[in-house]
Amino acid sequence: MTASHPVGTAMVPLARIAVGYNPRRYFDRKKHDELVASLRLRGMLQPMLVRPAADLPEHFTIVAGGRRFRAAMEAFGEDGEVPVLIREMTDQEALDAAIAENDDRDDPSETEQADAAVRYLAACQGDRAEAARRLGWSRAKLDRRLALADLSDTVKTALDERRIKVGHAELLAAVPADKQDKALETIIAASLDIAKTRDLLMRVTQRLADALFDKTECMTCPFNSGTQRALFDTHVDDGHCTNATCFQLKTEVVEAARREAEAAAEAEDAAAAIGSNDGDEADLADDGDEIEDGGETGSLIDDAAPVAPLAGRGTVVRKVSTSTGPSITAKSIAGRTADLREATWRTALARGLADDPSAAQAAILVAALTGTLSHIKAGTLTSRAALLVDAAFPDRGFKDKIAEIRELSEGQATTVLAAIGAAYARDVQSFTHVADLASAFGIDIRTVWQVDRSFLERYTKDELKFIAGECGLVAHMGEKAFAKLLGAKKADLISGMLNAVGFDWADRVPSAMALNGRYSPPQFLPPAETEEVVADLAA
Which protein family is it in (predicted)? Predict the structure, then answer.
């Protein structure tokens, strides 16, 4: 930065001073009132840094001192005189000085830094490395602040006023700007913490792995959650699209192309049937059934399905799906996923005990007094001793290990107990013990699992229809729309279920995965409010 040339100090009426660029967005009212009182008592002890105004002689623009100027206007009025340090400065020099002055004083907010990052990047013609160098920031910090610059003004103000935390803002930065204000209203109204905010936003994301379209553009898209993961500590799960509108549009393009191809193929088949003299109505009806997976499509008639004319008769036969399998119940589908349910609940319990020392201690006492503590495998904890105590612990003698354990701080001892509780959850032989502990401590499977393709692929079409019904997808889509989806191939049915616009599986626990065998709906917001918010964000 070119050195500035001092012009001198002077007492200048406030009426001849104008506010210039100020990185500050938010001024704390309490601190402002304290400064006003101080100025009235002692006057302004430190001059403001100003530069000559470009268009008015004997007038000046503030470079540094915006808070003092506002307080002085209230304390003295525009006729009051205050000390200023006058310097000739270029626009870039003034910007550098303003940002440096605010960085050195009361910590600027993240949004103020974001605005400064945008200005510097523009001054550096988009060169991020140069902008970071001028600001004295790491490249990572610059990238994070530029990402926050995409927040709506309403969200920025809420962050400045500390009505939300930085983690909330980081999550909202991954949402299209036109959806942020609605999400903010919900966060504040429902007093959502960061974890529950993340859960809410996860419900309006789409798994990129399930996308039907080419994902090349998604790799560099700012709404790919992988981008947010690289920037922020707080982010939605990797591999998700947070722009539901874009995802849906791309999906619709692919589906339209598929329907056109299917229509063309059916037209060719119909033409071939018309030209054939040996077809009969029964054969055509059989050809139209298209029963997959041993008749698993359910007893639904798809009114929207394509039709084929009967050769020489001018009548049509609709594709009708039939079901010959047994009735589907929550108990019957649970059998297909017993291994997954057990493994998932063990993981959820292990994490829950690791995060709750009092629960971990209770679980250990119960295990010890019921003779099941020995179920913990010998290598489960010894392999982690170096991390839990210190790197040399495994190599010490038993006597030295006793001494070292006795020297553990309360925090370290708590961590070790939590690890023992987690190990018990994973190794105890009876899953009934796992279920009882999970119920007693209010463990939520939602923290480690959600419905995904690998889960749905375990089931037949009839069973998928049951799951969609109990989880609310059929009601969300409508009976007719879901019936049409059910007529597709199983892989396409699963993709359609996972990618239904405005519907997310993140907080829904099908009966097959629940401990009590009953479907568990989203819990952190009232069901009606949850659906309304999700629909608004997905619209």
Answer: Belongs to the ParB family.
| Domain tally, the chain | 3
Tokens 């982010």 correspond to 235
Domain membership of residue 77 as a residue range: 9-104
Q: Rounded to two decimals, what is the model's pTM?
A: 0.42
Read off the pLDDT of residues 433-489 as tens digits, 9 standing for 90 and up: 999 999 999 999 888 888 999 899 999 999 999 999 999 999 888 899 899 999 989
Is the separation of the CB atoms in 284 and 273 below 8 Å? Answer: yes
d(CA 101, CA 99): 5
- The verdict on residue 194 lying in a domain is no
In this structure, which amino acid lies at residue 58?
E
Report residue 148 as tokens: 């926050």
For residue 228, the tally of other CB atoms under 10 A from its CB is 22
Tell me the C-alpha distance between 408 and 28, whole Å.
43
Q: Which residue has the tokens 């605010």?
A: 102
Residue 526 and residue 472 in contact, taking contact as beta carbons nearer than 8 Å: no
**Same structural domain for residues 441 and 474?**
no
On whether the CB atoms of residues 236 and 175 are closer than 8 A, the answer is: no
Q: Rounded to an integer, what distance in angstroms lies between the CA atom of residue 528 and that of residue 475?
A: 13
Phi and psi torsions of 444, nearest 5°? -115, 120
- Final residue in a domain of this structure, among 104, 134, 161: 104
- Which residues, at least 6 apart from 112, have a Cβ–Cβ distance to it below 8 Å? 23, 24, 25, 26, 102, 160
Q: How many residues does the chain have?
A: 539
Kindly give the interhelix angle for 527-538 and 177-189, rounded to the nearest 10 degrees.
160
- The domain that holds 88 is classified in CATH as 3.90.1530.30
Give a yes or no: residue 289 inside a domain. Answer: no
Sign of CA dihedral 66, 69, 74, 79: negative
- The CA-atom distances, in angstroms, between 304 and each of 232, 465, 487 are 46, 18, 10
pLDDT tens for each residue of 354-377 = 888 889 999 999 999 999 999 998
Choose among 455, 465, 472, 474: nearest CA to 512: 455
Distance CA 92, CA 116 (A): 12
180-214 core/surface letters (b: 16 or more CB in 10 A; e: else): beebbebbeebebebebbbbbbbbbbbbbebbbbe
- Ramachandran sector of residue 294 (left: φ over 0; alpha: ψ -120 to 50; beta: rest): left
* DSSP element (H, E) containing 49: strand 48-52
